[in-house]
Amino acid sequence: MTDISIRPLDGEERLDVHYNHGMYAFRASPPFQDKEEWAKIVRERKGVTCHALFEDGYAVASAASTSMTQNVRGKLFPASGVWGVATLPAARRKGYSKQVLSSLLSAGKEAGEIFSNLYPFRESFYERLGYVTHPLPIIARFSPSALAPLLGKDFVGEVELKLIGDAFETYREYLTKMRLHTHGMAFFDVGDKMVAQQNKLWVALAKVDGEIEGLMLYNLQGEEVTKFNFCAYRFYSKTGRGRYLLLEWIARHIDQADRVEIWLPPYEHPETWLADIQVKTESQVRAPMSRVLDVANIGGVEVGDGNFSAHVSDPICPFNDGKWKFESVDGRLQVSKAEDSDCELTIQGLTALIFGTHDPQDFPLRGWGNPIPEIQTVMRGMFPKLCPFLHENF
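Predicted structure:
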């Protein structure tokens, strides 16, 4: 009989398993990337938890997570970003990924994490494990010449240009302030400063009276001068002044780049920025997914009036199973155990409510619960639809 065990990994053992599993699962091979070059960066990562499943003493499946802090409906929560979920080919189709994820999430709950986030290799697989898909961030493409009218305007403020390694702390500080008012936004509690110090990105800071009102991370791609691609992987502004300072900065590259690519949150509408911009948008490759990890501790989020109870079921976190009451107290959610329930609700349905991604009427159609129309109305009043934006890529 095959001996199966799951346990956490640390130190060099964690690095060995990550390297062997990750290189095969997520990269073209052979050859593998140089291990010492890879390990030099990975050793510096903080807040990482890794669990592996062993088959007769040999690690055949693994998953990792890194601690995050996440804004969910106006409250900051401890959360995690799950990554590196991999199973070696000979051990696939045995349910090992599900088992190792269940172990990892249980450890996360014990560590105080309330939500879990990931980028899926297949959405349907992770949906079965309780995760719900967010709206897709977008990529906007247009010609920099469309921004030429901005060059003749007298803008208040200035753009300061730095390399990401020099501006890393400033960048993190901006994100921290942005997270306070951006639903769904999360990033790793300890940033990857070693990667930043490779200085592969410019940081443009839009400043007005010394205050940063917008920020853009970008590089110039291509081989032929005048035909570069101006690619901005982050484009954030908290004011209109900040946005147009950054757009005017892009316009200054008209003679250097012949195309612009900007990665944007799903709530942005670049077609409205300027007349005749002729922007073309497409979805980014993957949408993030999230799930409630600890039902008992999601209280404190901003909600509308109302209350209901539900029998919650969770496929891989049985500690969430049971009857729960959800009620608004002074505009904040309060969660407690209930003696009875108004409806059945899967963890997917509850997650969709909390993040605001789906209407409760969808739940019976998705297999996420059976709230009757009256309870659906209560749910809508308590949890209005929102557009979450995760920010962190991993």
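Summary: The longest strand covers residues 58-72.
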